[in-house]
């Protein structure tokens, strides 16, 4: 039997792209998009099923899973780092309850497989910041990071105790042109492209030398589908895998953009997000993902910038 996939949080930055790629692999009617708000992507709404779901409502989740005979869930709904710092109770409850609801669906055999994203935010100020290892100190000091670390432990727990087939990646900052990011500390790396094209200038809320791990969306979607499609025995880590793409700071990104817009002006005005960024790694060691399921990123700064500008200009 062919798998049927439910993507929860499909109107966001990752979901918008992931749904379309999954639909081309599994067939349009085998990938159900869902979100608490409608998608702004016409392509997504017209190419296959879409359901309004509040992920906190377990009965509604079960109803949709039964309606479409869903076998896999990709849970993307979450409050990201910057937004969660502004609303700590909602950040904690949404990020934890949504995961718990989906893991429970799997424990009670309504579904067979779960994808849930973690983040580089699981690391904290005393984690080694360069080439951060898979297994190291984890002392997150943001609500988002704390919820992601707790979520990783829950994933491992459900795998160990109930044999739930859950898979996860620690996403770095994600950069794509199809949909806007929503409330993260790494969002500047998307906004800068839009502003460069529209206004030829950008004010960064992170300092020029704030290096963070980042990844182009094409790589992130490929990594997500690759880990979900890997044979179960290759997925040896059931908390979450480090994955690496590229690392850069606002100054380096603005230099690269200047190759396309020579008069581009960059200014800097740090805000509360600087402190969040300061607590995160600068680069990641993803050698275990490479060893276990053959992960390798393809986009460097030059290739990513060229692709972003080409597509946004259209
Ligand atoms: C954020 O900035 O909150 C996210 C993340 C790194 O998980 N992009």
Structure description:
The protein has 314 residues and is of the alpha/beta class. The protein folds into two domains: 5-172 and 238-242, Rossmann fold, CATH 3.40.50.720; 174-214 and 245-313, UDP-galactose 4-epimerase, domain 1 (Alpha-Beta Complex). It has twelve helices and 14 strands. It has helices at 13-26, 42-47, 58-68, 81-86, 88-107, 143-162, 188-199, 217-229, 250-258, 273-278, 287-293, 301-313; strands spanning 5-8, 31-35, 50-52, 72-75, 113-115, 118-119, 165-167, 169-171, 173-175, 201-204, 212-216, 241-242, 246-248, 265-268. It has a six-stranded parallel β-sheet, sandwiched between helices. Strands 6-8-12 form a three-stranded parallel β-sheet. Helix 5 (88-107) runs parallel beside helix 6. The longest helix is centred in the N-terminal third of the chain and has 20 residues, at 88-107. The protein is globular. The chain starts with a strand and ends with a helix. The model has no long low-confidence stretch (mean pLDDT 97). Bound molecules: 2-amino-3-ketobutyric acid. 2-amino-3-ketobutyric acid (AKB) binds next to loops.
